[in-house]
Amino acid sequence: MITSPSNPKVAYLRSLHDARGRKEAQAFLVEGPRVLTAALDYGVTPLLVLYQPEVLERTVWGRVLLGRLLDLARQSRCNVVPVTERVLARASDTQTPSGLVAAVALGAVDADALRARREQRLRPIVLILDGVADPGNVGTLLRSALAADVDEVWLMPGCADVYSPKVVRAAAGAHFAQPVRSHDSWEACAAALAAHADKPQVLLAEAGGSQPYYAYNLTRPTWLIVGNEAHGPSPVARQLATGVLTIPLFNKVESLNAAIAGSVVLFEASRQRCQDRG
């Protein structure tokens, strides 16, 4: 058991709290039994797990995962080490650690690798996040994208780091199944659109638009753009858009949270596909 907060394994996990450390280590931080359970369920084995047995024993999720961690340790599939609560608090990015902190290789969630593992079927929606800066919104949209069976999620400049601990927690395991790509420029996005054989419709989600979201045919190839929480879509996103959709609101509510608005449209697309299949 690790009892010292200055242990090198703790320092390694703390380095993953920021983008520079993640880039150097080519790994990201995973916290809590639910997120790590999702990783294991999708066949992703962590590089390192520090866990506190007594904390995990306090919840059903923790107790179940504890057995799986002990199996991993016995099989020597990864480095699984018990720690004290003080050490866990040092390694954690949260105020109240939920029993474990782990590192997962970025390569394990590479978009092409995830695509290769997915069940092959038509997925007409690509979700494009245009400067969505709040980590909670990015993580929630990743979770909704996976639940709505989105083909890919693209993060454009200005978005929160998809591998930041807050995004990973909010996504609740979506990183291990939903292909995500970060694009350095809109030029790459425009080039991909121009080269796309199916010529997708590009729909911009915006408050105050004239066309309700459910009026569009979302069973056809569609790129859905969700813009920045405060400033809305960027000028280049507006240029790419072939249509603007909106969510009708009542009682003088001007707009919805970006994650809620995007999720509403994604699940309408899912509903239309299910209806189309009969």
Summary, kept brief:
With 278 residues, the chain is of the alpha/beta class. The chain is built from twelve helices and eleven strands. A seven-stranded parallel β-sheet has the order 7-6-5-10-8-11-9. It has a four-stranded mixed β-sheet with strand order 1-4-2-3, sandwiched between helices.
State the shape. Answer: elongated
- Poorly predicted runs are none
Largest sheet: 7 strands, parallel
Taken together, the total number of domains comes to 2
CATH architecture of the largest domain: 3-Layer(aba) Sandwich
List the helices and strands in order: HHEHEHHEHEHEHEHEHEEEHEH
**What is the spatial order of strands in the main beta sheet?**
7-6-5-10-8-11-9
> How many helices?
12
Look at the structure and give the CATH class of the largest domain: Alpha Beta
The CATH superfamily of the largest domain is SPOUT methyltransferase, trefoil knot domain
What does this structure look like?
By secondary structure, the chain is an alpha/beta fold. It folds into 2 domains: 8-109, 60s Ribosomal Protein L30, Chain: A; 112-276, Alpha/beta knot. The protein is 41% helix and 18% strand.
